[in-house]
Amino acid sequence: MPVPMRIQLALNVRNLDEAVDYYAKLFGAKVNKRKPGYANFALDEPPLKLVLLEVPDAPERLNHLGVEVFEQRDVDAAIERLGAAGIAGEIEVDRTCCYARQNKVWSSDPQGARWEFYRVLTDSESFGEAPKPEPAPVVEARAACGCS
Questions:
Q1: Three-class SS state of 48
Q2: What SS3 state is found at 5?
Q3: What is the average per-residue pLDDT within 117-125?
Q4: Which of 36, 67, 74, 138 has its CA 20 to 30 A from that of 11?
Q5: Is 31 exposed, middle or buried (0-12, 13-18, 19+ CB in 10 A)?
Q6: If DSSP codes are grouped into helix, strand and coil, which group holds residue 128?
Q7: CATH code linked to domain 5-144
Q8: Which 8-state DSSP code applies to residue 19?
Q9: Where are the beta strands (DSSP E) in the chain?
Q10: Given CA atoms 53, 65, 93, 70 in this order, what sign does their dihedral have?
């Protein structure tokens, strides 16, 4: 039986209101979480977590990619698998980021695209702190966060 998960796509957007309106229409879905400078859609069909970060001056529209899992054993398996392959980056435990407490592991592909395997533990009222810098360039603290 496959492990339940969904792909995450985190985009830097110039105007959050416009982006939320567009993606609500595109996917025929309501926003899942909306906070200052941040919104996400948690879709079942297709299985996608779409994260929107308001970063008007970002040089790139792609912020990062991720795989959301729903059990800690799946985060642990990703940590073990990525570590054995020599591509694990920072491991974060019970860290607040993007209005949620999370456990995760980061990895960057050879061109610098950042990926996270993560599990949301609970929602938070604060955006959180940016993780320690990785080799990939970061636009700003909000853009560095693996949001969910």
A1: strand
A2: strand
A3: 95
A4: 74
A5: middle
A6: strand
A7: 3.10.180.10
A8: H
A9: 5-13, 33-35, 38-43, 48-54, 62-69, 91-97, 100-108, 114-123
A10: positive
CB-CB contact of 50 with 99 (8 Å)? no
pTM summary value:
0.80
d(CA 64, CA 75): 18
| Stretch 9-34: mean pLDDT | 97
DSSP conformational letter for 108? E
φ and ψ at residue 8, rounded to 5 degrees: -115, 135
Residue 27 has phi, psi (to 5 degrees) of -100, -5
The pair phi, psi for residue 142, each rounded to 5°, is -60, -35
User: Which residue carries 């996917």 as its tokens?
Assistant: 27
Residues contacting 133, CB < 8 A, separation 6+: 144
Q: What average pLDDT is seen over the chain? A: 88
DSSP letter, residue 78: H
Highest mean pLDDT among 119-123, 129-133, 143-147: 119-123
Q: What's the Rg (C-alpha) of the chain?
A: 15
Residue 64 burial by CB count (10 A; 0-12/13-18/19+): exposed, middle or buried?
buried
